[in-house]
Amino acid sequence: MGRRVLITGGAGFIGSHTCLVLLEAGYDLLVLDNFSNSSPEALTRVAAISSVSLNSTRLQIEHGDIRNPHTLDQLFSDAAANDRPFDAVIHFAGLKAVGESFQKPLLYWDVNVSGSRTLLAAMEAHACCTLVFSSSATVYGFPKDVPIPESAPIQPINPYGFSKAAVEQMLADLNASAPNTWRIACLRYFNPVGAHPSGQIGEDPLGFPNNLFPFVSQVAVGRRDQLQVFGSDWPTHDGTGVRDYIHVMDLADGHKAALDSLLKEGPQHLICNLGSGAGKSVLDVVNAYAAASGQNIPYALVDRRPGDAAITIADPTRAANTLSWRTKRTLSDICRDGWTWQQANPMGYRESA
Ligand code: NAD
Ligand code: UFG
């Protein structure tokens, strides 16, 4: 039997793509998700693409909340009782909307910080000490230097960022409390975008998209009239904001690389950027998406969005050196795969869910 991994938030955007990569690599998975920002349909499709049966030993689903200690205790106890303990946890579950985090800070501290604490307490109690955690480039705030190395100061600028930084600190404290016990990988993602090339799974934001890529996709497919480009006077090659966009399948491969490394190399506390090291502007994305889709993407140049940085780009050296991982897919691949998903599912999972 394969290694067994508990995946919190595995029905979400990044989780569903990672489940696919891990199933194909032979891992057995149990997904814990409360579906507050996702659809079970994503996992039905993951099962179909990877030719496994839902709720077989390969892929089990538990509808539940990471903040509930009884749910977690039961999952770990059942796993042990059935002689299938979890070898590791990948912790995706959390809330991620920067704007919402200003309006509902307590909710963000509850889900992202208390939820992570509850999960870690269950892991400690059941002696499961291998964890891959979803952190974010947002912990760097306004970076002084780009590309950004992991040694850059942690200086969040919004409640969401503070919640991720708090969990990173909790993991550092936990690791220090029991050296040579924990195997922790804290992955700081840059801008995850795109979709599985099948077009069967992808990003499905509820309501008005906050992020560039889903907005551009919805303009291309005719759900929105035009994109607003936030700022055309940034100190960048064309005046629009520059980001390090990473194909979600590259990100999924990065999780597999981190998990493999933790299981093989033993106790450690790794903090690692996952990004490409290349920056693309808003207009670069618009042009690449228009080329990939053959659609016109109307846009208007408007004022800067408060809280945005001009440029964020990862220094991906550590991931290359420690995980032998680097991005393989281009912006054009990202746009092609994102468009395949958007065209096949113009309303996301809702039409078929
Ligand atoms: P997502 O919202 O698509 O996935 C998160 C999943 O967690 C969803 O399926 C949601 O239903 C589930 N969830 C939320 N609260 C839960 C709870 N209390 N109990 C159980 N399940 C719960 O988001 P994503 O883009 O896949 O992001 C995954 C992780 O990566 C998050 O922690 C996010 O903060 C982090 N991250 C995302 C990005 C990004 O741009 N997408 C960037 C950096 C970091
Ligand atoms: N942008 C627009 N119009 C839009 C949306 C975005 O011009 O409608 C611009 C932004 O100003 C920025 C770029 O597109 O220059 C990217 O913006 P996103 O909102 O897509 O991404 P951010 O880099 O602002 O932030 C995202 C997540 C954060 C996370 C960060 C790094 O929202 O939570 O990526 O992972 F921390």
Q: What's the CATH C level?
A: Alpha Beta
DSSP helix fraction: 25-40%
Helix count equals 11
CATH homology-level superfamily: NAD(P)-binding Rossmann-like Domain
Distance separating the two termini: 31 Å
**Overall outline:** globular
Offer a quick outline of the entry:
The protein has helices spanning 13-24, 40-49, 69-81, 98-103, 105-125, 159-177, 212-220, 248-265, 282-293, 317-323, 331-344, and strands spanning 4-8, 28-33, 59-63, 88-91, 130-136, 183-189, 191-193, 227-230, 242-243, 245-247, 268-274, 280-281, 299-302. With 353 residues, the protein is an alpha/beta fold.
Describe this structure in words.
The protein has a single domain, classed as Rossmann fold (3-Layer(aba) Sandwich). 40% of the residues lie in helices and 17% in strands. The strands form four sheets. Strands 3-2-1-4-5-6-11 form a seven-stranded parallel beta sheet, sandwiched between helices. Helix 2 links the parallel strand 2 and strand 3. Helix 3 packs parallel to helix 5 and helix 7 runs parallel beside helix 9. It is globular and about 60 Å long. The mean pLDDT is 97. The structure holds nicotinamide-adenine-dinucleotide and uridine-5'-diphosphate-4-deoxy-4-fluoro-alpha-D-galactose (UFG). The site of nicotinamide-adenine-dinucleotide has 26 residues, from helix 1, helix 5 and strand 5.
Walk me through the topology.
Blueprint (H helix, E strand, L loop, with lengths): L3 E5 L4 H12 L3 E6 L6 H10 L9 E5 L5 H13 L6 E4 L6 H6 L1 H21 L4 E7 L22 H19 L5 E7 L1 E3 L18 H9 L6 E4 L11 E2 L1 E3 H18 L2 E7 L5 E2 H12 L5 E4 L14 H7 L7 H14 L9
Parallel strand pairs: 1-2, 1-4, 2-3, 4-5, 5-6, 6-11, 7-10, 8-13
Antiparallel strand pairs: 9-12
Helix pairs in contact: 1-2, 1-8, 3-5, 5-6, 7-9, 9-11
The structure holds nicotinamide-adenine-dinucleotide and uridine-5'-diphosphate-4-deoxy-4-fluoro-alpha-D-galactose (UFG).
